[in-house]
Description:
The protein has helices spanning 2-60, 68-89, 96-101, 265-273, 278-296, 333-360, 375-383, 427-433, 490-494, 507-513, 517-532, 535-538; strands at 107-110, 114-121, 139-142, 146-147, 149-153, 157-162, 168-175, 178-185, 191-193, 200-202, 205-207, 213-219, 222-231, 234-239, 248-253, 256-260, 386-395, 400-408, 421-425, 444-447, 461-465, 471-474, 479-482, 487-488. It is 35% helix and 24% strand.
Amino acid sequence: MRxxxxxxxxxxxxxxxxxxxxLHALTKIQHEEILAETQYDTKLMDATRDTLSAYQKNIRNExxxxxxxxxxxxMESAVGTFYTSLExxxxxxxxxxxxLKEYVPALVFTMYDGxxxxxxxxxxxxEIGEVDLERDNVYYGVRPxxxxxxxxxxxxYDIVITYSLDNYIRINGIKGNQxxxxxxxxxxxxxxxxxxxxNVTYAGVEITPEGVRREFIERGEYKESYxxxxxxxxxxxxxxxxxxxxxxxxxxxxxxRVVEPVDNPREYYENNIKxxxxxxxxxxxxxxxxxxxxxxxxxxxxxxxxAVTYPSSDNSLxxxxxxxxxxxxxxxxxxxxxxRVIRASIEENLKTAIANFNNYSANSSYNYLMPTLDENExxxxxxxxxxxxxxxxxxxxxxxxxxxxxxxxxxxxxLVKEGNIYIINxxxxxxxxxxxxxxxxxxxxxxxxxxxxxxxTGTSFSGILSTDFLPVTRDGGETYFYARMEKxxxxxxxxxxxxxxxxxxxxxxxxxxxxxxxxxxxxxxxxGRERYGMYRVLSKKN
Length: 542
């Protein structure tokens, strides 16, 4: 009996020890894999942040950032930053930059109404018209711009709608015998315009032209405030003392002051700057666009299920609403369709680009596929100018690394989001006008969703675009100054607390719930003014 126990013990030990050793080795490998994966995630995140930072800095200092060629050049420069950052953090065999290209199938830059994909491609064809896939012919660069567009077809219409990251759309096609070629911002039916009186109201608030707006500009050792207006993304300032007292209109190009040739600067100031009509025109033209869309083109019956490019089983009316969930609300049918089309267009083209990477990569042992992005990442992509990076094919011993990063560009002037409007007291304009910059020491700007604004009974407010508070660089970026010198509210902006409890992420819905009409007017006016001043909106008018 004793011998049997001994033998069983020996057999047990002989079985358990190898298993324990194997489990220990496996646990060690898994630990090393998790550690390596975490390091790759961190390095990819750092490289993507560096890329976004480089792009933000370059495009903010580039006055011609609205031109496609300029934008592509700045993206390619930012991609160089991405690879440099990875080179400094990853150790790969062979030429670092060339070796890294084997693991980066694509980079995506989402824009206002479309996106770019940076990936390898080959546009060289052989004598019978087939694409030559020889690796010596592979070129890494930015592919042609892809719009967030979808074709819809019904009994009497065949149209293409191009969506954007907000409620701006373009429509091209045919409805009956009518050719449609139109674009504009889409707002709900609580926007009214009276052609006889000229009155414009939105959500029960009358929208009127604003008074003069001013910003500080560095002038030698001093800062001086100048009145200005933003047109096509460019700010035009009026200097009444320049040109021997005759005044001049000027703007900045590549950080240098440039005089705009205007016959009568004073008259230009009186007509365009002294009374800023951008917000008024934004809501007036939005009303007219919706009227054409629903009355002239009779597209009120358009449904998501009419989609051809990206088919949908949803039978909802795209431009319909129930009086509570309005077109501009996050939960509206229009917004759901907008996000669906944006997601489908990015997903389809990115899948193709990454799958095609297999034709160019020397890493034949790995099949490059688009990873799964979660719902929060898709929400971010559908509502923000952003960058998406991919890193795949790195060995993790028992498996292969497949990582990606999605980062939003919160400093872009190409998209005015509802949350980009901050509120200040109108008294600041008094201080600015008289160059009393010392008054800004105790002046702060707030988010509209600051809890303290719910019961605010003030009567004088002004809305300012968030990027106007960022530093403005000069001298090639060596020096900088602030065009506005108010300080951010520590609670609602810096720490992002003290937020209204009834705010659910929908700014339109929340602002409508406020009882202070002066506060609502300041917000609506700023949102309309800044969107009307964007390059994308005004491009069709010039």
